[in-house]
Amino acid sequence: MELIQEADRSKWMVHSNHSIKCFTKGDIDKMTNSYRTCLGRGAFGEVYKGVLEDGSMVAVKRFIHNVKENFAKELIVHREINHKNVVRLIGCCEEENALMLVTEYVANGNLSDALHHDNLPIPLDIRLRVAVECAEALAYIHSHMYTRVIHGDIKPGNILLDSNFHAKLSDFGISRLANTDKTLHTENVIGSIGYMDPLFALDGRLTVKYDVYSFGVVLLELMARKKATTVVDNVNIVYAFTSALARGSGGVRWMFDAEIASKDNMKVVEGVAKIAGECVTMEREKRPEMIDVVERLRVLRQKASRQDQASQHSGLFSWARRNKTAPPASANIPANILPSGTSSKNSSKNAITFDTKISCSSSSVPPTPRTETEILESSNVRKFTFSELKGSTRNFRLDSMLGEGGFGSVYKGWMDERTLAPVKPGTGMIVAVKRLKLDSFQGHREWVDAVNYLGQLSHPNLVKLIGYCWEDEERLLVFEYMPRGSLEHHLFRRGSYFQPLPWNLRMKVALEAARGLGFLHGDQAKVIYLDFKTSNILLDSEYNAKLSDFGLAKDGPSGYTSYTIPTMLMGTTFTGTNGYAAPEYIATFMGTHGYAAPEYIATGNLCSMICQPVIHHIGLLLF
């Protein structure tokens, strides 16, 4: 087989979003231990488990002979995509008779096996999360990329699940890049039986609505836990579903998996079924955009989450307001309920306590002191309503998204410069709206810390906090917009937008970042940053540097007393003794791997002079 020549390679390696590593065949042989562990086989070839030199696990996709064009096409598409819910492409090998792709290893296999072979319970919330994450990935490749991508083979077998059961799209072997909004035509049949858009089989028109149809089938599988190829009354399950749905949402209840089809969940499950029905309609133009599907699924997941919390211990207790009588309560007490329990808020109220004889008494719970999850009244920021921020960001549309991380997502918004009221895109001033995920405890701490610290700090080299919103379960922050993005992008990405920084700008950025740190370490602020890195240094239109993301910031200690900050492990405070805790337990620390000071990782102690751990960070930045 001929190698992909240098002239050919330039056609498909230029406009990539991120660089990938080129491996030799010898590298692949070593990392796979001579292809010892096969993870799967397909028409393209085989997938093997591998280990990189740093110990991280990878998956190696080895193509069979005579598929150079397939390899090149998949590489062209996959390297363009950078999204948390898409399997990350790490590198490739293009030697003769050795065409291979190296991707991240996803530990829990694929969704098809989880649904149909593992025979394990899958709660509704997990199914909804998988649906939302897949929809987010599709919305991203359809609408949020410079060149949109049509996946072409959405099915549970191509949806992988990581160790925390987060979903990641994989297998871009038959995907297409669509440079315009025009329809693609092909005579080649693509896709998988049961998930292929029937309209495509008829007219050969390939649009993003092809993926929407396939996603609708996946939604049906998630709710019914039946394969798409299942035959019901001599017709396939999709046809049986759409026929039943035409008779009303209640007509499809018999198809839902009994594990999730409880009375409490029924409205949510029926809502998902309605979306699935719209996705698989035979009127192509009436199928929804994935951006809209994402928002609707998020709403349903929030509704299911609230119902689950409300019903978790319902019927166990009966509460009354002060000096009012409560109706009698009766319920079967679960074995895992402790002998006594109290609940308190920041006001004195009655608490029901149980002794081992299940008798009850009344007692008073004093007000609790202010916790670190409250916003300081002195924060000099505007309080927004959730409705105002929805209007500003166009209902958090994906094409308004600026970025995302473990905390949630950041959206571009537009506000009136004087009143801060939402305005139409292209008018007023641009702001960055940070929306926190609902299920992130550490994210909630980050959000509160940011309000408390940034609300009281003002410096030209700190990103300005404009306001916040705390409404029901929604928590958001509004910052000034930094149009040049992060320093990380300018240093490590190349393209038409992110240009290499000349030496004078690099020195300017380093000086201004140091000024920002100097202010934080001074007597006025006494704040330890803890997460100083290139991705947290943002640049305005004039390349002025400003520090951002104070989620890990902490009040500085007074005087010369050393103190320790507890390490956060998935929302749990580590209270063990430093130096005695198991290394694997303290391995998850506050800060970013590669940037945290070694003495902080080893001891958890922050120096009394505040600045030494962050001096380590700025040294790495200058390096």
TrEMBL record:
PROSITE patterns xrefs: PROTEIN_KINASE_ATP, PROTEIN_KINASE_DOM, PROTEIN_KINASE_ST
GO MF terms held by the record: ATP binding; protein serine/threonine kinase activity
Record carries keyword Iron: no
Taxonomy of the source species: Eukaryota, Viridiplantae, Streptophyta, Embryophyta, Tracheophyta
Annotated protein name in UniProt: non-specific serine/threonine protein kinase
InterPro entries named in the record: Kinase-like_dom_sf, Plant_Ser_Thr_Prot_Kinase, Prot_kinase_dom, Protein_kinase_ATP_BS, Ser-Thr/Tyr_kinase_cat_dom, Ser/Thr_kinase_AS
Region annotation Disordered: where it falls in the sequence: 327-349
Compositionally biased spans, kind Polar residues: 340-349
Bias type Low complexity, positions: 327-339
Keyword Transferase (UniProt): yes
Enzyme class at the top of the EC tree: transferase
Ligand binding (ATP): K61, K434
EC nos: 2.7.11.1
Any Pfam family hit: Pkinase
Organism: Panicum virgatum (Blackwell switchgrass)
Keywords, comma-separated and alphabetical: ATP-binding, Kinase, Nucleotide-binding, Serine/threonine-protein kinase, Transferase
Protein kinase domain: residues covered: 33-300, 396-623
